[in-house]
Amino acid sequence: MVTNGTVINCINLLKMGTTMADEYYLKAWSNYPYYSEEILEPLNYALSYDEEHAPSLCLMARLQMELLKNYKASRHYYECALIADPNYLDTYKYYTLLLIEMGELENAERILKQGEGKVGFSKVLAISTRANILECGGNLKEAIALLKNGKLIATDSKSFEYFNGELSRLKKKVKKHKSKKK
Question: Which of 113, 130, 150, 175 has the fewest CB atoms lying closer than 10 Å?
Fold first, then answer.
């Protein structure tokens, strides 16, 4: 049974572990990406309270990458986030996507491997990202084999359907490629 005292104790525990940087980060994150004008100010406040706040650095990198298309700045923020907290998993996820978008597939693979070595890194995410790297590198058959393996480790219907959809898309791509060769 949850009592008012239990709720108050939980709230107090949360406040004790939450820094000002965390609070401003959460304000920025709650607006991302839909209210871009409401992101930058709290994000800058978060970084002014703690310039090594990995979640804020990662979100700033995403803002630079996804909204402003400033890949150089994005890369800088991702690298700072990795230095600040090598265990913040989102950095590996999004930094890998930036490197794929920039065509730096070997670097993307290297960052992905680093992330995979961390506790809590999603195997489903690793497989889907690696398949993306393989596809961008022109290794469609290897990507298909990897996605088939992904279906075997999928533990929920969303992941399973994702792998099915990607398999279907890549198989169509291979089929089109074969028909163009003839």
Answer: 175
Q: Give the CA diameter of the chain.
A: 74
Q: Does one domain contain both 31 and 69?
A: yes
The C-alpha atoms of residue 1 and residue 9 are separated, in whole angstroms, by 14
- List per-block mean pLDDT (blocks of 10 residues) for the chain, which spans 182 residues: 54 67 95 90 96 98 96 98 98 98 98 97 97 96 96 95 96 81 64
Q: Are residues 70 and 157 in the same domain?
A: no
- Let me know if residue 182 belongs to a domain: yes
- Domain residues for the domain of 85 are 17-120
Does any domain span residue 115? yes
Task: Give the CB-side neighbour count of residue 65, counting CA atoms within 13 A.
Answer: 21
Say how many CA atoms lie within 13 Å of 26 toward its Cβ: 6
